[in-house]
Amino acid sequence: MSDVYKFLIYRKKSNETESRYEKFEVPYRKGMTILEALFYIQDHFDSSLAFRYSCRGAICGSCGLTVDKAPQLACRTQVSSVKTSKKPVKLPEFNFGDHIGWNEGDEILIEPLPNMEIIQDLIVDMEPFWKFYKEVEPYFAREWKDTTPESHQSSEAAKSIENLVYCILCGLCWACPVNAEKKYYLGPSALAKGYRFIADNRLSEEHRQEIKQKVWDEDGVPACEQFFVCNRVCPKGVKPGTAIKQIRDKWSKDE
User: Fold this and answer.
1) Is 241 within 8 Å of 179 (Cβ atoms)?
2) CA atoms within 13 A on the CB side of 114
């Protein structure tokens, strides 16, 4: 195994209109992740390299980016396995700019998340993602000091929505081709969160109907074209596309 890994990284400053790609060589150490490699580059070559991170444990979802044309979490992706691990199949082609001379077999390509406005380098504007998430109102809304059975849920009911609870709102699912084409599409994550609460027996019926109306908006469930790219890139196995399909199958717009 090589002691040095080569990286080709997307660069664009906030005041620049044109992007570029820069090459770096990082000495490898056992267990190194893409996030750790970015820290090395920032510490030893260019302190201005911009990227997001927080927990470093694949829980917060902050460090999402595109590695060799596949959306991934930087803190979870091992440098040594980038070229050998199985990639999600049938992904759209993500074009961020010209990167002439990328040696796919020898260089690890690092780019931002797709279908979002780029603020600087690997940092994208997540505001539309959060805006649509908030519009769905994926939370409980009960009166203060509410009484049971609102606060109780059987193990069977909990298990039926368990995988949806694992969503860490990383934004990788915005790799969906619909997000690329439709600016106001709510997106897989927001719609999956909508299903997670619609299907929760603890939700008030009034709030359930409110969420149903929101997810059935023309920019919600009807806009999904069932590419299921979101299922393939989700790092937590949430399968947002399946949740959207379940909304279609279980509840009509006016039910």
Assistant:
1) no
2) 27
What's the pTM?
A: 0.92
Which tens digit of pLDDT belongs to each residue from 48-77?
Answer: 999 999 998 999 999 999 999 999 999 999
CATH architecture of 4-124: Roll (3.10)
List where CATH 1.10.1060.10 sits in the chain: 127-250
Q: Tell whether omega for the bond before 177 is within 30 degrees of 0, i.e. cis.
A: no
> Which residues, other chains included, contact 44 with Cβ-Cβ below 8 Å and sequence gap of 6+?
none
Q: What's the helix, strand, coil split of the chain in %, to 5?
A: 35, 15, 55
CB 188 within 8 A of CB 244: yes
Fold of 127-250: Fumarate Reductase Iron-sulfur Protein; Chain B, domain 2 (1.10.1060)
